[in-house]
Model the fold of this input.
Amino acid sequence: MTKLCSLKEAIAEYVHDGDLLYAAGFTHLIPFAAGHEIIRQGRRNLTLARATPDLIYDQMVAAGCAKKLIFSYIGNPGVGSLRIVRSELEAGRLEWEEYSHFGMISRLQAGAAGLPFIPMNQTAAPDLEANNPNIRRVKDPYTGREVVTVPPLHPDVAIIHVQRADQNGNSQIWGILGEQKEVAFAAKKVIITAEEIVDESVIRSDPNRTLIPDLIVSAVCCVPHCAHPSYTQGYYDRDNVFYLNWDKITESPEATQAWLQEWVYGVKDAEEYWQKLGEETHERLKVTPAFASSVNYGKY
Amino acid sequence: MTKLCSLKEAIAEYVHDGDLLYAAGFTHLIPFAAGHEIIRQGRRNLTLARATPDLIYDQMVAAGCAKKLIFSYIGNPGVGSLRIVRSELEAGRLEWEEYSHFGMISRLQAGAAGLPFIPMNQTAAPDLEANNPNIRRVKDPYTGREVVTVPPLHPDVAIIHVQRADQNGNSQIWGILGEQKEVAFAAKKVIITAEEIVDESVIRSDPNRTLIPDLIVSAVCCVPHCAHPSYTQGYYDRDNVFYLNWDKITESPEATQAWLQEWVYGVKDAEEYWQKLGEETHERLKVTPAFASSVNYGKY
Amino acid sequence: MEAITYTSSELMCINAARLLRDGDVVFVGVGLPNLACNLARRTHAPNLQMIYEAGVIGARPSRLPLSIGDPTLVSGAASVCGMYDIFSLYLQRGNVDVGFLGGAQIDRFGNINATVIGDYGKPKVRLPGSGGSQEIAAWANRCYIITPHQKRRFPEKVDFTTSAGFLHGRTEREASGVRGKGPLVVVTNLGLMEPDENGELILTALHPGCTVEQVRENTGWSVKTAASIRQTEPIQQNDLQLLREELDPQGIYLKGGG
Amino acid sequence: MEAITYTSSELMCINAARLLRDGDVVFVGVGLPNLACNLARRTHAPNLQMIYEAGVIGARPSRLPLSIGDPTLVSGAASVCGMYDIFSLYLQRGNVDVGFLGGAQIDRFGNINATVIGDYGKPKVRLPGSGGSQEIAAWANRCYIITPHQKRRFPEKVDFTTSAGFLHGRTEREASGVRGKGPLVVVTNLGLMEPDENGELILTALHPGCTVEQVRENTGWSVKTAASIRQTEPIQQNDLQLLREELDPQGIYLKGGG
Done:
């Protein structure tokens, strides 16, 4: 049963105002094109969850899509602070819920595993726990010592970018895996954006590489270059220049809105956005191929 | 730092009388050659842990290596019962500790994750919990409902067979993964047996395929066909004929001991054992190659 | 036309296959359940998703697997994951529609014993144990049991509850809060038993030529019968052909009276 | 011979590299820690194992990663796993020897604030937050901090404890039962500070040309000094060469006064 549809259709059908959204990807495979489509479709009051909000949520917050942020590190990775998110938080205009990376990922692991909570060992750092009622304690029934707990996170919808998927949604990822698997299984609905849609025989020739199975996928969209300015291992490089530029752009609200006008509202889809980046950028982000050694599964 | 050594050396150095041993592998990649070497070296009073003891532990119990068994399913997979283990248990000559598969694997997951326990949802089946004091309960701090818990399992030594490893112990596995990763991280010492020792460039060309990193590995042994009569995906098939024969052999203690004499004590190592199996068996277990589709990581 | 003949195993296998719906995610065991699933996938349920406790998802076995960890389950599968993931991300999370169960004893309320006959500490007969069944019985949305109809297999009460049916009654299972609906059908060589409103297994259907008396004689409790007992659909030649010629050509699982 | 000149960043980076032992498993951050680790691996610690919170083990970056999730960390790495695994199987399990930490504030007992300046609910300055540091500070066997020596960075008490140092004293950390030994060295542009028996950071070494007065002026509490203050080894030309020509040719992290 094919689940192929356009990203526009997938967002229209599965992302609603007020939803808890998790656009997955730790630095790698961040589905920027999906964030831009959500901005174009004018979604509001979203709760945006990501370990690292990154530029994708800075842009969605700037566009007024967000009511609340759930995160564990708000920065422009390797550059500095996320100016929009930071100023909205400091101004008290954006609600937030905060964890350490491990606390955030443990919430996803609990959600994916169908557990009511996950224990974590103590860290002796008291302040986050004191400020977040979701972080609790339970006594280990074997040693009697207390462990810290977090509850499951079940996003209404997860958006996950992958290198390749078949039309049913069996998806393969390589390179940094971040929290992709946990988010997919924790979420109520999963939208897959893929660099390539391949025949199922490609996927089934290497089942150990399949991180996300079709049975939890709602929609599959073919979106080449979906991750720019983030990257897709083996397909194109991270656009560090853009990450540095964003820091300048967001120094002024006007420049930020102008950027959104030109690069999000001003283009119709990911393809037009990519073409607009131009030859020189395409060249700069090109990757020299380096292939994995062969693996023999055998015919049985 | 190479950790290459012979299987004989690895067993002599890392497996001691009284140890809690976990020879990993769910049907796939069961390190029979290591079990045979342990028998040849006459280890005693071992606590043998495996979700599925399989023939490897039936043989080790028959050889008098074991004091206790920790398991979740004792059968000859697809054939019937494990006659030796079963009769020893019925005769009260072998201690045991029992879980469901999920309980057993959860103990390994807790051990691997460095947690004092792992919660599981209730199953409403009361009897195993009533008979195993390691299975306890704790109240979920969010809903107030009870969840079932198991403590971590930390084997003194884990033996893990893999398709390929580099000399430092970075190991890659494909096909059924069973509990390999969890056992490796849960154990205090890890012995890797590999079908092939490859240059690290082979491993590093596909880091997502590496299930076990060198930093938790104590010894690396090159042992082709280590898994027979179990199998190694892509290298040789499962010897179902032997699994059926074992059911006959173990009908009599004499035949069982005779088999041990001929096939374990009577051979010096895995290579001699494999040669003794003969051409016809080698032919029967041959596998037609079927390769995974290529994956591009890119040069960065 | 001459009468179609078949073994009890073939009869149970085909009737089990009929319980599967297209698109079902099935936690498959070896033996008859594996055959039933493959038969369903080749006939009325082409989108059936077969997953195995070994950590295989969307398997398409090209040969009959002797063991539940056969390499043929992996070659051509959609995905492979570790055992912790298959039991947590799939089963515990609620992604499994159907589980197949079996055991040495199934009692009046569908509770299953696969652990011991006699006392647990000093077993008369030591059975294999739970494996995956304790969790499958609790968390799969629907469970089916395939077993020959014999008195010793259907005692009033199991010696050991390896997997929960309806415990002492439906309300008790419901109170436990487990997500699955429990054993919905027991397929035997005589007919089908299903839980009534109290969770007690009652005779609801007979296979062609089988009688209520046969069922009574071979059940360890005074089995109730449904107000109207259905007759199962006659066995079709094409199903037998698929089983015999493609799925179990050597008759490893189908020859036996099961 | 002419005097060797270097930036404070180069000075801190080289001194941080000296803290690493061959074979150490290091949880690496971007920036100076990444440079320090790569410098150590190219010099006295060829078997240094660099692992990254993104889930990369045994990375061998061939270029300077701007972000902690750069693709160059993956290409040629020994292994890649998910974030839940890197924090549980590696860090929580006790497989990490060294963690590098940084923050806007480090206090007298080595506690770190990377979360907020002012009140948490109404922050004057909202900082990035913990990321991986809360767990690294607790569970890595040894922790090192690299930071320029400035009064505002070294307050008597942090506004918010993002990561535990020695809390209000060594006994309090030990009582908490966390496995790691806590921050063992703070590397600044003036020298090194190390915890005394009470877990209070005291001046134990000065870089060539730096004085106790400079340290006093730039520390937010009346900093104690060790009985005998060591002088750090002079910077070697070959280390500078490696840093400038191979590890950070554009001087992205090294040009700055840090």
